């Protein structure tokens, strides 16, 4: 019989913790052991939601008291490097909710710690694990759209308060020191991770960021509108549009263009136009996939 992977939660002020924890709890090989956060209300919810015997007000106490194989970190961004360092001392692997950290220096330090301790540290970009994500990657890698030359992505939501994030989340998400930035730091990483997986490493980037000033709760030093242009090592280009101000859901938020075709990817569907595929007459050459998750 294969032993279960014993997991603890370190920090719960990021609302992603609840669906991430549920996803781990559903896995047959995982045992949800404990959780830690300074906020009593979050500890109580975790205890109830995942039937935990023990919860802690400090992740260090949890690491000391529990026998864990890995932790899931949903703290603010600035704290992540400290959590990784504490976990490494016990040989505990780490799954970080995105982004990796608040600053580049902290990210570099996390890599240094992981390599020195021989632990695995991963950043959880959730789309990696969807059928839709894997299908688009397969089409690109098998040459269905020919030579890729352009990736375009739009990502964002109406705003932290506007979409109903918890007060625990908003408190640090709009604090530059604790978050590391605004909409670009919060959202663009999804696209950057996808683009580099599909097209390869980025060698150049130019970005513009702006505070649009229509929210009285958002500090002036936090961008809520941003655009970046990137160049990949293979010569392809990319455009990233990341914002806290998206009104209405966009049917397609990513497109990938090649010499032989185009992929459109959205929340609920995907389409591909390829000279190498059998066309669908009612879509004027486009092939539409049924919803894939």
Description of the molecule:
- The chain is α/β, with parallel strands linked by helices.
- It folds into 2 domains: 120 residues, 3-Layer(aba) Sandwich (Rossmann fold), CATH 3.40.50; 161 residues, Dihydrodipicolinate Reductase, domain 2.
- Helix content is 30%, strand content 29%.
- The protein is built from 9 helices and 14 strands.
- Helix 4 runs parallel beside helix 5 and helix 6 packs across helix 9.
- It is globular.
Short synopsis of the structure:
The chain has helices at residues 16-25, 40-49, 59-65, 80-88, 104-117, 131-141, 167-173, 176-179, 183-199, and strands spanning 5-12, 30-36, 54-56, 70-74, 93-97, 121-124, 148-157, 202-210, 225-232, 237-244, 254-258, 261-265, 270-274, 287-289. By secondary structure, it is α/β, with parallel strands linked by helices.
């Amino acid at each position: 019989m294969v032993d279960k992977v014993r997991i603890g939660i370190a920090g719960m002020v990021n609302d992603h913790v609840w669906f991430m924890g549920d996803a781990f709890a559903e896995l047959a090989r995982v045992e949800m052991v404990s959780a830690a956060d300074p906020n009593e209300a979050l500890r109580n919810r975790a205890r109830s939601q995942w039937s935990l015997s023990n919860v802690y007000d400090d992740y260090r106490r949890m690491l000391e008291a529990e026998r864990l194989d890995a932790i899931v970190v949903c703290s603010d961004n600035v704290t992540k490097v400290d959590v990784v360092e504490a976990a490494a001392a016990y040989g505990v692997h780490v799954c970080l909710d995105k982004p990796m950290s608040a600053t580049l220096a902290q990210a570099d330090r996390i890599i240094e710690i992981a390599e020195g301790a021989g632990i695995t540290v991963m950043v959880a970009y959730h789309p990696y694990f969807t059928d839709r994500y894997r299908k688009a990657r397969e089409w690109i890698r098998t040459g269905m759209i020919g030579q890729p030359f352009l990736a375009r992505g739009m990502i964002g939501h109406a705003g932290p308060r506007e979409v109903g994030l918890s007060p625990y989340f908003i408190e640090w998400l709009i604090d530059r020191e604790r978050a590391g930035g605004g909409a670009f730091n919060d959202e663009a990483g999804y696209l950057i991770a996808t683009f580099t997986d599909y097209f390869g490493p980025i060698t150049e980037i130019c970005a513009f960021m702006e505070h649009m000033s229509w929210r009285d709760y958002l500090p002036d030093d936090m961008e809520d509108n941003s655009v970046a242009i990137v160049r990949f090592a293979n010569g392809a280009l990319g455009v990233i549009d990341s914002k806290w101000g998206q009104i209405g859901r966009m049917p397609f938020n990513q497109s990938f263009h090649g010499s032989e075709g185009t992929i459109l990817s959205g929340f609920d569907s995907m389409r591909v136009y390829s000279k190498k595929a059998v066309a669908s007459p009612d879509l004027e050459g486009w092939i539409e996939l049924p919803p894939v998750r």
